[in-house]
Design brief:
With 160 residues, this protein is α+β, with helices and mostly antiparallel strands. The chain has helices at 12-25, 43-46, 96-110, 125-133; strands at residues 3-6, 53-59, 62-71, 79-87, 115-120, 137-139, 153-158.
């Protein structure tokens, strides 16, 4: 049974290992993606501010992935970003991504965000299919400044 909960400080090391493992597995560039984000080793601290949250998926104390919401850097106050949603292969295809997006979007609504933004890579087709199913639409260019210059697929969703 998988448990979805808010990140704790003692999750930092295990979560950064999981995220890097997934990023290597899916062959993302090490520059211009989440792989090189300075907060990757300090995810708890990165999501401590009021309008941010990060959830982890765990089972028997082992972390299998996570997803978060935070204000989109250098964007309008009303725009958040779905961030660092990655899962180990063993839990993919079980509906967990869908549940995580729902939890993240619910938090975004509770925190008065009006739009949610996502960046991804062209070959991440399963992720894009899920985003489209959840009501995201493609847009023609980036918003804000994520620092993810290698990500060249952008989506947004108007929150209700």
């Amino acid at each position: 049974m998988f448990n979805i909960r808010q990140i704790r400080k003692n999750d930092n090391l295990n979560l950064s290992k999981v995220i890097r493992e997934v990023l290597i597995e899916i062959e993302v560039p090490k520059e211009g993606t989440a792989y090189s984000d300075p907060e990757l080793n300090f995810m708890f601290e990165a999501y401590e501010n009021k309008r941010s949250i990060y959830y982890v998926v765990e089972n028997n104390g082992k972390i299998y992935g996570g997803a978060g919401i935070s204000h989109l850097n250098e964007a309008d106050y009303n725009i958040c970003e779905l961030q660092k949603m990655y899962f180990l292969p063993s839990i993919r295809g079980k509906g967990i991504g869908d549940m995580m997006i729902e939890k993240c979007l619910s938090f975004a609504l509770d925190n008065k965000f009006k739009y949610c933004y996502i960046e991804t890579l062209p070959y991440m087709k399963a992720a894009q299919k899920l985003y489209l199913k959840k009501g995201f639409s493609y847009i023609n260019g980036p918003i804000g400044n994520t620092g993810h210059t290698s990500c060249n697929v952008w989506l947004i969703k108007k929150l209700k």
